[in-house]
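Page 37, top half.
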Amino acid sequence: MPKGPDIKQMFAGIARRYDLANHLLSLGIDYYWRRRLVKEVKASNPTSVVDLATGSGDVAFALKKELGQSVNIKGIDFCEPMLAKAIGKKSQKKVFQDIEFILGDILHLPLEDNSVDTLTIAFGFRNLEDRAKGLKEMRRVLSKPNGVLLILEFTQTHLWLRPLYTIYLKYILPILAYIITGKSKAYHYLAGSIESFPTKKLISEQIAEAGFKNIKSQALSFSIVAIHRAET
């Protein structure tokens, strides 16, 4: 697992074309995954939501569109070029003006204890240098009781799909990524990090060890990704 500074440098290098790469490499399914995440958030009726590892802000923008102006939305990321991308996109639409984007590290969140109703993290949990520490920070800032954590992340696919999916991740995706972004290192890392990421069951156990309860996981798209939901 690369260290935090290495992860930051990788994402800084692909920030300019990050959105385009996401949409093309996922064949557009990333829009559906975000909609499912936002639907889960809406069901918890939050007044404040923080999107961790917000990247270029797509989850934060989707949350604002669905939840409206009455819900406070913040996005946090530790990679300045990615955050700059989010801020640039925010400036293009009036409806997004009250979203606050903050530079910060999940392992040391710049948030008060018990200050947030709901936390989301989409495809950033896998990149944490210390998942146990990150989960403890998430629990620290969530309101108690009834705080909600929602993690959208890659997971282990169904066995029948795994051989084809592995070929795509290892050989096809890095080539396509290089064509789109001019860089392939981050996408070689992506393939390796997905293959080595724990199963849904093990992730649920790690979430429980951090003190969360009522933990559920829901697989999507042949278990390519999963949404993990937990409460404080």
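Page 37, bottom half:
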Amino acid sequence: MKMVIDLPEELAPMEDDLIRFIEGMVFKLAANSHKSTPTTDDIPKITEKLIGEVGEFVRQYMEDPHDPNAELESFDIGNFAFLLYITLQRM
């Protein structure tokens, strides 16, 4: 399935990075689709999980900033922010 996003002209220099980040988030969402996503959790629970993901990213980055796993952790951070958005929209 394809998704089309209108990108404002001023963000054109970031187009490739945005595409890679969104594709990475989608990859991680699909990889974790077997888990129950906490979209029914309340905001504090999801925020706590987001903070945990930030901690995982920091630990990975401090261990080796060039390890591809640091990039994967950034996708998890983005996905928990996405889950916060979903929860807010359903309130």
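Margin note: The CA atoms of residues 8 and 15 lie 10 Å apart.
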